[in-house]
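User: My collaborator and I are trying to settle a disagreement about how two of our proteins should look. Neither of us wants to argue from intuition anymore, so we agreed to look at predicted structures for both before our next call. Could you fold the first one, then the second, and keep them clearly separated?

Assistant: That sounds like a sensible way to settle it. I'll keep them separate. The first protein:
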Amino acid sequence: MAGLFNANEGFLFTNVLQIPDLFAQPYQTMSRIGFILLSILFIVAILHENFQALKNQSDYTGLFIRVILVVGLLILYERFFTWIVYGADLVSNAIMPHEEFQEVIKAFLKQPLSWKTAWKFDLRLTATVLNYVTYAVAGALLGAIMMLRFLLLSFLYVIGPIVISVGIYKGTAQGLNTWLKSLVSISAWNIILSILMKVVSVMNLTAIYLTEETNFMMILAANVLFIVLFVLVPLLSNQFVSGGNLSGLGSIALGAFTAVATRYIIPKTPSSSKPQTPAGGGAGYK
């Protein structure tokens, strides 16, 4: 189990620095296509601004800025891509080094074994099994997030030359804006994950196992929260880049957990009330 969180920086589907080398051939093909589109759309963009000038609505300044941006990105494409994704990894490691990250995760598995309070065997066994399940699910989610991040960044790297090239024309420039936001958002997954884990370590959620008031529901809540953190990473990253409101996301997550707890965990309390017999209920009956 411990190997689930031992991220290997040289692993094929997690090291984003391997992307330029692995996809060099598709990138070259997309670059040629992008150059053709750039040549065509540059002419189209100039003609468009000339027609707009007849209506006194031209934007030659905007066209000049797009040309500088597009040409600059194409020239520095590989370096720009590496700066963004590797820079995000460096920031992530600065926030929470890999060794500290592992220690926080392993604490959720090991802490129940050091309980000081005398627990019933069945509750302790159940809680320990629950922590092993939590560790396994969290490990699978972490691996899925890292592989999905690698996959999406690879996709963005391959289509980048085309998306950047078509950005020279005002009518198709939105695609370049979306590409840039997606690149930053997906690259920042590691940063968001490190921040969340740092918050967990500061809050010391594992201390819940050491208090006298600890019960199965509290343990379950802490473990569910731990797993939810991994699920929220892509959503939080997208919210920050797009400028969305995080309070709505938190409400959705809390509402979903409450619904599950109410439906499957919290036992229904049988009603103690009985049907009331109307006063003088015998009247009218023989």
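The second protein, kept apart from the first:
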Amino acid sequence: MPELNYQIKAELNTTPSAAETWSDLGVMMKNISQALNEVLYQATYLSDEGWGSSEVTGGQYMVTFTGDKKVGDPVSDYIFSDAVQYAFGEARKTQLRLTRGTKTITWEVTLANITDAGGDANQPNAVTLVIHGNGKPTFGTVV
């Protein structure tokens, strides 16, 4: 059975400067795209007669969400607050938690490319958010 995207629970800490408040990104987001932005070391050795080799030496987790702005939703209100959307540095840092079945992955993250995109007059305000992982994630299980 394939994993369906709605089976991935994505939560954002919407109170990073206080006690954690995990709010569900799934209330406003409709699409999730995950990637490891991998760092490669590439080399061509004389003995390989011109053929190259690659090693993955690092990476950074990145996830892109698209959805609808929902005034009153904790995630939407947090991301699109003046204190986050129009600020930089520490104001854009929080934590992301993904739950898949009984496994969880939690990252320190930076919110980037916050796009309050708009759209047709009779449609919801389409939004985009790219989340960049900062450092190694923490792996856990749901009890």
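Some points you might bring to the call about the second protein. The beta strands are 8-13, 22-24, 29-44, 52-68, 93-100, 103-118, 126-141. The longest strand covers residues 52-68.
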